[in-house]
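Side project, low priority. Logging it here so it doesn't get lost.
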Amino acid sequence: MIDFEECVEKGLLRKGIPSQEQAIASLAKAMESLEDAKLVLNAKRYNAVAIMAYLAVFNSARAILFRDGYREKSHACVARYIQSKYQSSFTQHHIDLLDVYREKRHDVQYGALFNLGKEEAENMFKFAEEFIKIAESTIKNKTR
């Protein structure tokens, strides 16, 4: 698995100008995606939950990168950044689930034979809610 330093070396994470404005906008997108995930969960559209819940998590993590002045070119490297820089906010379990759910979203989106079940969709939704709360708190408190 790729690590943070390798992400930077390969240009998959790039240092830029910190932007609280982009962080807030990305967090707003995360909240909108979470609302969409809830709608499709209630409609029993479990594959759509995988996509929307993951998008919510991804945009909330990306908000932290924006706030810190980083841009991503790899979903996996977003997880590596959070893992490397925010160990006090996110547990290893959060990072592991971020990676697992990134792969599940990929399977749903690109695997014709893969379908997400109800329990997994519910778990992804709950994880997205929790992850966003931590990301939002991290951004508002400006702590690492």
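Brief comment: The CA atoms of residues 14 and 71 lie 5 Å apart.
Revisit when time allows.
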